[in-house]
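Data availability (excerpt). The following record was deposited with the supplementary files.
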Amino acid sequence: MKKVLVYLLLLSPLVGAVVPLPTKAAFNAAGAKTYLAGKAQTPWSTMALVAAGENSPALDHLTSVSGGQAISYTAPILALTAAGKDPKTFGNEDYVAKLKGFYNNSQLGDPAALNDDIFGLLALISAGEPKNGQIETDVKNFILNHQAVNGGWGFAVSAPGDSDMTAAAIVSLIAAGVDKNDQKIQTALQFLKSNQKDSGGFLSSPSFDTDANTSSTAWVIWALTAAGISPETWSIGSNNPITYLESAQNQAGWFANSPGGSEDGFTPIATAYALTALSGKTLPLKITAAQPAPTVAFRIEGKTETVCEGNVTAITALDVVRNASSQCGYTYNIQTTQYGPYLNQIGSDTAAGLIGWQYTINLTSPDVGASDYQLKAGDKVLWYFGNWDDKMTRLTLDNSSIASGQSATAKIEFMDTTGWQPLPSATVYFGATTATTSSQGQANVGGADGYYRVFAQKAGYVRTNSVLLKIGSPTNSNVSLNVNVTGVLGNNNPPPPTPDISFSVDPGNLDFGDLSAGMQSSKNLILKNTGSKALAVQAVVDGDGVFKDNLKLGTLPWNKYQTQLGTGAQNGVIAQLAIPANYPDSGKKQGQIIFWAQATQ
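Predicted structure:
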């Protein structure tokens, strides 16, 4: 075009001398801001105005979100955080919880799409969610694992890479902590460079486009800025991405889809993209200060057994199910419905009809969905599989440590509209023995020396909490546990074993060393029967919560571990400690495993 234009000027009979080309005006930021301010506001215009220095953009359009997809929440979250607002509380719902509610099978939203994962991860990071959180880590890995053969990323999992999604993916991954020198980032940048035209701009898809456009070029500039690369250094002759964008700005302030283009319905969005890029900014514009997730006690009661219990950090009641799965080893399924996320399955217990997964907070049923309930430190969260009207129960023992030959009294109660009432005819379980509660809701429990998990259940009532009962002096061997999160107890000598019940555990101390959040370490133990009777061995973990909540023996949580040891036999077991990705504490921690045994013959 430049050669043709000069040629015509030289030959025009109306021109008596060579007329120089007009000098292109510099980027008119004020004009772009005025143009956007006069249009209907969108999340993208809000971000652009903030990027250009506007401190108080209009935000009324962000008080509600329309659309039932994950992608519907991403731009509003990015706009609110850019404006210094909390997307959890600004609108008529918690936008962050809603977005996280689309998380399923290690990705966000539509499993066939990538755009919702890319912008979803970026939005969560902007909202102050932890970069190493389970959802953020899974989504980041989902994006990394679906880089296209051509080095880019596409709108869909199966699509070839294009400039737009590749640039957005680079921005998102760098925001999530991926190093800009990572090979995948560098390969993606090479793919972007291959899509640059002589004009200095970028085409969107090498499979379908031949010309550069404003939006793709703006997004590439975002990616270059995120990667610490000056866009001017990507030059072809005297043209580069900045000069291309500047040449697309109209005197009225708006940006055409390409230089010389006219205004249309997409012009405000293209202008917002270009204004953000030419202001030298990338996404997210701001990151909300992370609010530490509270630590809560939880219990998950399945149809036939307790799935897991302990302590976990979580923002919402639904996050408890997600976050506890790694420490407990269960699988779960959360469905996306028109009413919001729905917990459909934990383990083999799947909702059907009126029977499904219900939740309570401090034994009270909230009137909001689990993805919307914001937890507070110290809350007790109960998930149970049953009817919505099953009654809450509790179990207490009058003594949790009794002498050999004695018994303890278990008291079982249920909650009605007036408070706690005795629960008669409930079955109390302790070891392999059961008892039935009296009209006063009481039952005696006892047995041979050992540790017993005591709990009760009855049809129409939620299974009770369990209480550990120690009887007498069980034959045991202790293993000290130590870890320094970025402990040692004195090695307690076990009581002298009886001649026929005797076993050893080696080594007597496990030091997991220095572990950061998200890391794990495994140690080997050998249990050996040194007595004259076959034994059943179980374990109890005591000490710091990092061990009680996160230690596994073999592939199971420690409280489900058991093994049989024949006379003279020995078994190995791997003790594995995994520090949760969102673990809030640090320092040296101490604990112990108490292995105890009973004769089986």
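Summary of structural features: The chain has 14 helices and 28 strands.
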